[in-house]
Amino acid sequence: MGYIQKDAFRTMLLSYLGMFLGYFNKAFLFIIFLTTEEMGLLNLLLSVGLLFAQFCNLGTVYSIGKFFPFFRNKAKNNYGFLQYNFLIVTAGVILFTFLVLIFRNGISSYYAEKSPDFVKYYLWFIPIGIAYIYFFLFENYLRALHKNVISVFLYEVFLRILTTLAIVAYGVKWIDFDLLVKVSSVIYFIPTFFLAVYLFYLKELDFRAWSISIPKRFRKILFRFSALSYFNTLGSLIVTTIDAMMIAAYLGLAETGIYTTIVFITAFLQVPYRSLTRITNPLVAVYWKAGDMVKMQELYQRVSSVLLIISTVLFMYIWINREAVFYILKPEFVQGIPVFLFLMIGRLTDMYLGLNGTIFTMSKKFAFDLIFTFLLIVIVYVLNIFFIPRIGMSGAALSTMIALLVYNVGRAYFVWKHYKLHPFTASQGWVMLIFGFNVLAFELIPHLDNRWVDIIVRSVTFTATYPLLLYFLKVETEINSYVDKLLRRVGWLKT
């Protein structure tokens, strides 16, 4: 896994840089310059825009990771595989833009009472969605070529720098909020444009439909896989966006602003997961093609072990300082601590068992995943209807947590039953034991009066009792390998 470590390390660094910029935007600039209602509107437009993008992709984007190894042939221009997917996405964009315009009044009426500003700017999620789906198409293709860094930089870093400039321009009164909304929507086209230029440079992208030479029998296979993947991935995104959409309808944009900001904070946990899956997903496709279940099992366990440690470490750094962190953001954010806890539990499960989704969807039984996705949507939607009116935005987070637990455990059991693949190792037991001890211990340690000093003291203490302890006990060799390489680069460890 040498090149995986190298590429994952670069993409993870860029992702964390992007996450830092994102936090600077949403946890600093947004809070300074925007009201919670304005935050809610911008975040809701983004959420709906991403959902719109998933509708437009028609499932074809997800066929790249599974089937590109079969079509990769430079002499034959990869059989026009990218052009084929580009045409399908374009058809989806035209179709769903038309449907959005037709059903505009009906959708707007759902938000008219509690979130009238969303009705005013309703159509501005369309540019976000169109720009994102083409970026996602190009990114997946580059990922299949094992070229991950530039797409991560453009989306995680460059786009957030553009967002920073837009917010600062609003904060110093160079633009008004109306223009900020519109600028925040159209800037998504800029990273997409640069990624398209990069593909032209690699001579991978052209718009000649006649360059497509995919055999008809493969087109049928692609269509079937794309159709199933479409509903699976659409369902997964519905789960991540339906909370914000229903909170806006039931409670209003202020609560939506708080909830979506906390969702962004919990996304900090998923950076290692996204970085690793960018690299490992193509490997899963290769192992399925070769029928190498030994390497598949090894990859599954190693990725799960690494993500278990990283995710629990990141969870604890935020959780042990939760009251100070949320109060520093804004006092009204303290009410979101239960939201944070529920979402974190769901995300921890999602990360630890996350590779089972890739293994599942790239297997011959990928059609069964549609059942799990349907179950996921139903659980979230039904529980949201029950919980949101009774306990507010915490109810939405509780619904998501329950749904993710059922969804991931169910898929993990299916993968084990049919392929005898599982993520468990003996060392993970030690990780959970030490983690549980830390959770209990820090609940008993009293807080200091000075919030900043309290954050520093608790964080340093935790570092010594969890990540450093895991490192010196050599519980997970993959983590130790990462750390040792980093220490050698800075000269703190001899070769």
Characterise this structure.
- This protein has 495 residues and is mostly helical.
- It has one domain (2-489).
- The chain contains 23 helices and no strands.
- The protein has helices at 2-33, 36-57, 63-71, 81-102, 104-111, 116-120, 125-144, 149-171, 177-186, 189-201, 216-250, 253-266, 271-290, 293-319, 322-329, 337-352, 355-361, 369-391, 393-419, 426-444, 451-465, 467-473, 477-489.
- Helix 2 packs across helix 4, helix 3 packs across helix 13 (271-290) and helix 4 (81-102) runs antiparallel to helix 7 (125-144).
- The chain starts with a helix and ends in a 6-residue tail after the last helix.
- The model has no long low-confidence stretch (mean pLDDT 82).
List keywords for this structure.
495 residues; mainly alpha
Task: Describe the SSE topology.
Layout: H1 2-33, H2 36-57, H3 63-71, H4 81-102, H5 104-111, H6 116-120, H7 125-144, H8 149-171, H9 177-186, H10 189-201, H11 216-250, H12 253-266, H13 271-290, H14 293-319, H15 322-329, H16 337-352, H17 355-361, H18 369-391, H19 393-419, H20 426-444, H21 451-465, H22 467-473, H23 477-489
Helix pairs in contact: 1-8, 1-13, 2-4, 2-7, 2-9, 2-11, 2-12, 3-7, 3-13, 4-7, 7-10, 8-9, 8-10, 11-12, 11-18, 11-19, 12-16, 13-14, 14-16, 14-20, 16-19, 17-19, 18-19, 21-22
